[in-house]
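Hi, here's the filled form for the chain we discussed.

Project: internal
Contact: R.S.
Residues: 156
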Amino acid sequence: MRVLTRLVVLFLTMLPLEVAGLQSAKGANMDAKVRVRYMENDIASAVSFYTKYLDFREEPGATANFAMLARGNLELVLSTNYGPGGAAKPMSDGRKAEPGGWNRIIVTVDDLRAEVAKLKKDRLHFRNEIVSGPGGSEILLDDPSGNPVELFQPAR
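And the returned structure, exactly as it came back:
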């Protein structure tokens, strides 16, 4: 049975994505917007955080349980884990989505140290100090609900 399952999975991965209503990478519009959903405890404070500190702009249609923000080709979908939206519905095993975790968006900055100094003056919470690797330097900033945002400066 395992062999049959593997063969079916292998076959399905070879099918063009148009079968599922998606474009294959070959024909994909690589300039299209990318959406990321963050679960928030309070939409208003999250909107304020992202628009004030990280240069996102708020799109029309926000409610107490939902907001859409944009920055370049990134659309950040903010939802609460309560209310009428589908993102608030529990999983079949009863688990509910919640803020936090380690998956994150990455915001590239020109001068990481200057950005961190500016944000620390406003008493924003960082999970760590600046760390550096071969690709550049980064630090993790928490939004008001504890979702991480990586501020990243590429190596020069």
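Let me know if anything looks off before we file it.
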